[in-house]
Write a structure and sequence with these properties.
2 helices; 2 domains; alpha+beta; four-stranded antiparallel beta sheet; elongated; 168 residues; Jelly Rolls
Length: 168
Amino acid sequence: MFGNAKFKLLTKILYVTAAVAGAGIVAFGAGFEPGSEGDPVVTKSYVDKQIEDWGINIETKISDIYSKMASGESSSSDPVQKELQIVEVEAGKSAVFASGAQVILRGGTGSIIDSPQGGIVDITQGVDLRAGYDVPANHLLMIPRDDGRGIRAVTKCILMVTGEYEIK
């Protein structure tokens, strides 16, 4: 009987100790800002507030982009690209492109005009097209430098062009 009483007393002491420790943890955690470094567990209201703040910020940025597009403003950091143009190049003529121009041959045949520094980047195949190569139809081509690179039309060509160009 004496052993059973010790066991009950020990059990009660453990229960009281656990209750006090639990209350201390709750009291300690209540002293921190939800979501702070001291209390990384956050409430639903905190998450909702963060999502709302981010949404307002995104809406503001989107409206800024739309207003710049409408006013015709642009800067080098704007994600807005120049307008796509359909360009027809008669046989025997050449289209020479500025740096950063993008071109897709949609009709006709043409050959590459390169420069001493290199050719035209065929993004579709991942190759550098040099002088004399036939321009592959429906491939995205990019002009890396403003040094006279372009396309010479063998037959009448129809090009989709983004960026600056000159017909010679």
